[in-house]
């Protein structure tokens, strides 16, 4: 198991976690609008703040739980403090507000909103998400397709895990990614991306199959968690289109609230856009720093603060270069050579900045016990070497 500083901290409390994440937050979406809903948010903050000081003694589980704690606080801030969901939010096709509906209807509505982090099927669903499954897709066809996606990503994760286990930058007692030869640093970065995407797509696919098979959801409710890597020829497009959008709702709502209601900037202005950009990454900083602290039990060990704080500055620089290029006649849809320059820029940016975030996690064997597959189908069939590590 990777070494953190969790010795002496109390054990993780499942009842408190259930109360804050599985009861208080959904309840805030089910109860009718009233002036006392903020009490539920306070209970979420207090409960999750305590949980951040507990430990499962598994660093990767602690990190995941820490991101859930922070996400619950931010989502609660959005749905309880900034928004009156039952009056302001709608399912697509929903005509009337649900605040006057009976409890059973509000319960189903609230649970659906609580479980839809990206707003799939809601009027606030971002346009940049991948196209949803066709409404004509049957459950059986959806399940067959998702089983294929899961199988393909198991193979990809297996292949990446073989590479990762041989990579000293991904080992607890290894070296910094920044100390690797330049070309291998690009390969390492892509290996981390494909490993993370494969693992998330496997989990997303399994949950979608269970949900659709049990009748809890329809095929149209499920959208791929990632966009195309081919869209990632700028940093703005990578963060806004290619990478997962599970934090989009509370990041955009806080940004719009600050820009329009606190600073009173008109929508579409440069000032409004900058406020929303910086607020979005401030949300990411908070979420990842809480995850870092929950894992390390130290604020000064993880690299999330610097990594996410410099992203908006790079995006602004990038936007300035693009605007300058357009003034010199380079307008319209970028061609293949322009995109290749963009891909090189994006990869190089992360080759330079990613090690500062990743290295502290690698030292606690984050890849070894958290992202890599503990067994290998490829090596098992090839060499009979099925078991590859611990969990």
Describe the structure.
The protein is an all-alpha fold and 391 residues long. The protein has helices spanning 14-30, 38-51, 59-82, 85-88, 103-114, 139-165, 182-213, 235-242, 248-262, 270-296, 304-309, 311-327, 336-363, 366-371, 377-383. Helix 2 (38-51) runs antiparallel to helix 3, helix 3 (59-82) packs antiparallel against helix 10 (270-296) and helix 6 packs antiparallel against helix 7 (182-213). The mean pLDDT is 90.
Helix content: 55-70%
Radius of gyration: 22 Å
Intertermini distance: 8 Å
Tally of helical segments: 15
Q: What are the segments in which pLDDT stays under 50 over at least 5 consecutive residues? A: none
Major sheet details: none
| SSE order | HHHHHHHHHHHHHHH
Strand residue percentage: under 5%
Give me the count of strands.
Answer: 0
Topology:
Blueprint: H1 14-30, H2 38-51, H3 59-82, H4 85-88, H5 103-114, H6 139-165, H7 182-213, H8 235-242, H9 248-262, H10 270-296, H11 304-309, H12 311-327, H13 336-363, H14 366-371, H15 377-383
Helix pairs in contact: 1-2, 1-3, 1-5, 2-3, 3-9, 3-10, 6-7, 9-10
């Amino acid at each position: 198991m990777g070494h953190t500083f969790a010795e002496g901290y109390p054990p993780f409390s499942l009842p408190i976690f259930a109360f804050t994440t599985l009861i208080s937050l959904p309840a805030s979406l089910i109860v009718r609008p009233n002036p006392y809903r903020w009490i539920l948010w306070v209970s979420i903050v207090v409960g999750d703040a305590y949980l951040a000081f507990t430990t499962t003694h598994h660093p990767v589980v602690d990190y995941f739980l820490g991101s859930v704690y922070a996400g619950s606080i931010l989502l609660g801030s959005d749905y309880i403090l900034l928004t009156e969901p039952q009056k302001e939010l709608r399912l697509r096709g929903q005509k009337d507000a649900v605040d006057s509906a009976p409890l059973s209807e509000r319960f189903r509505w609230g649970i659906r909103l609580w479980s839809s982090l990206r707003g799939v099927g809601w009027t606030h669903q971002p346009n940049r998400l991948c196209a949803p499954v066709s409404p004509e897709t049957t459950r059986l066809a959806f399940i067959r397709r998702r089983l294929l996606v899961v199988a393909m990503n198991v193979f990809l994760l297996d292949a990446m895990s073989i590479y990762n286990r041989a990579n000293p930058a991904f080992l607890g007692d290894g070296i910094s990614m920044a100390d690797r030869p330049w070309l291998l640093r690009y390969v390492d970065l892509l290996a981390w991306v494909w490993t993370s995407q494969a693992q998330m797509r496997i989990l997303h696919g399994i949950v979608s199959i269970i949900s659709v098979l049990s009748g809890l959801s329809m095929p149209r409710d499920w959208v791929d968690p990632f966009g195309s890597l081919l869209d990632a020829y700028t940093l703005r497009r990578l963060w806004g289109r290619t990478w997962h959008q599970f934090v989009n709702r509370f990041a955009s709502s806080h940004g719009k609230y600050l820009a329009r209601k606190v600073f009173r900037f008109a929508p579409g202005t440069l000032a409004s856009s900058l406020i929303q950009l910086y607020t979005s990454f401030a949300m990411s900083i908070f979420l990842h720093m809480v995850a870092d602290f929950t894992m390390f039990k130290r604020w000064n060990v993880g690299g999330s603060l610097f990594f996410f704080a410099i992203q908006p500055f790079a995006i602004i620089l990038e936007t300035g270069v693009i605007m300058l290029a357009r003034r010199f006649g380079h307008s319209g849809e970028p061609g293949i050579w322009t995109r290749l320059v963009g891909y090189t820029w994006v990869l190089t940016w992360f080759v330079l900045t990613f090690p500062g975030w990743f290295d502290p996690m690698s030292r606690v064997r984050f890849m070894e016990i958290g992202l890599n597959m503990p067994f290998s189908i490829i090596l098992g069939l090839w060499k009979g070497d099925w078991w590859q590590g611990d969990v």
